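FAQ: What does the model actually see?

It sees only this:
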Amino acid sequence: MLKELVLKNRTYRRFYENEAVSEETLKELVDLARTVPSTANSQALKFALITDKEDKAKVFECLGWAGALPDWDGPEEGERPASYILVLCDQHIAKNKPIDDGIVSQTIMLGACEKGLGGCIFGNIKRKELAESLAINAEHYTIDLVIAIGKPKETVVITEVGADGSTTYYRDENQVHYVPKRSLEELIVKL
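And it is asked to produce this:
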């Protein structure tokens, strides 16, 4: 069951924008994340739930959507995420929590996948601009990551790394998104 969930949990960049994700659903996802391990159990990460149309537009403008697809500026209207979760670090509790960021983000993504949703974790963020546009106190909180959440509107396929060794994702003429993965044998180091 976990393997099926992990294999289904892909990065999606296009969504059925008109299919809302409620704030209650986002709270359920954050509730999953709040119970996972945290470095020194500091629980310094906080979460901003974005469902308002104007706020979603502000977030969208501050994200870099797909570095490996340079001719694509992100999803068009109608294919944008239904919601976002901002992962913030409370600087009054602790600083620099990249391990915690990864754990909570993957937990949120797995929870979303279990609910028939999908998402995309963003580190490519215009943080200063986003903090200003959403009135986030930058002295109190850092914006660590942004997670887009919605009902996926694309097919993502895991494929083997080709002969050239490239792990760069790509799309075909039908907009199917391919993500090359290294083989299990290549990942296991024999000592």
